[in-house]
Specification:
It is built from three helices and twelve strands; from the N terminus they run E-E-E-E-E-E-E-E-E-E-H-H-H-E-E. The chain has 189 residues and is of the alpha/beta class. Strand 11 and strand 12 form a beta hairpin. The longest helix is centred in the last third of the chain and has 26 residues.
Length: 189
């Protein structure tokens, strides 16, 4: 092993961030936007790619592939488990899954939303996405209006007190505060 635990047969992109005590075995490939925590061991022929962050003291075994697309190409995410009850609600007013069984795994909130969009626009997932985008934009606009109303110049409105998880309280003010956590920007390597 050379270069602080990196085997000469391994390939590590210069933009990858490796913590102290990381060991990387022969034939392993570490991509450019990867962060590996201190004390982690990456065995031989493992592949770590994409925007991946591995915690400290982890162990990736021989041949592991992390950060790429799923190896099971039939996996389509959890969308069908939400869309099937929505289709049942829109067509039959029943909260059931694709097999016709009562749905117990999902709360009815999002399937009801999707069913309502289906009833208005037809079974088009594009319409669902557009309505979600519009609702998100409306939420941001309402938050802006509320903030400008609360912190307008010369305002005599009482500023609500915020209770922090630590039990202490603080009064929010117009002064910007510095974030406690740093932001990781891998494109600055």
């Amino acid at each position: 092993m050379t270069r602080a635990g990196i085997h000469p047969g391994a390939w590590v992109d210069p933009c990858a961030e490796l913590g102290a005590g990381v060991t990387i075995g022969p034939g392993a490939v570490i991509g450019p936007y990867v962060r590996i925590g201190a004390g982690t061991k990456v065995d031989s022929h493992a592949l770590v790619t994409g925007w991946t962050r591995i915690g400290r003291d982890c162990h990736l075994h021989h041949g592991a592939a992390v950060g790429g697309p799923p190896q099971d190409l039939k996996y389509s995410g959890d969308a069908p488990s939400y869309l099937a009850p929505a289709e049942q609600l829109a067509e039959h007013a029943r909260f059931e899954n694709a097999h016709g069984d009562k749905e117990y795994l999902r709360t009815p909130g999002y399937p009801l939303f999707v069913a309502a969009v289906y009833r208005v626009f037809g079974e088009r997932n594009t319409a669902v996405l557009l309505v979600q985008v519009l609702l998100s934009a409306l939420t941001v606009y309402l938050a802006y209006l509320l903030a400008s109303w609360m912190w307008s110049a010369g305002s005599t409105r009482p500023i609500p007190r915020v209770i922090l998880p630590t039990g202490s309280s603080t009064t929010p003010g117009p002064r910007p505060t510095r974030a406690a956590a740093s932001i990781w920007m891998p494109w600055r390597c």
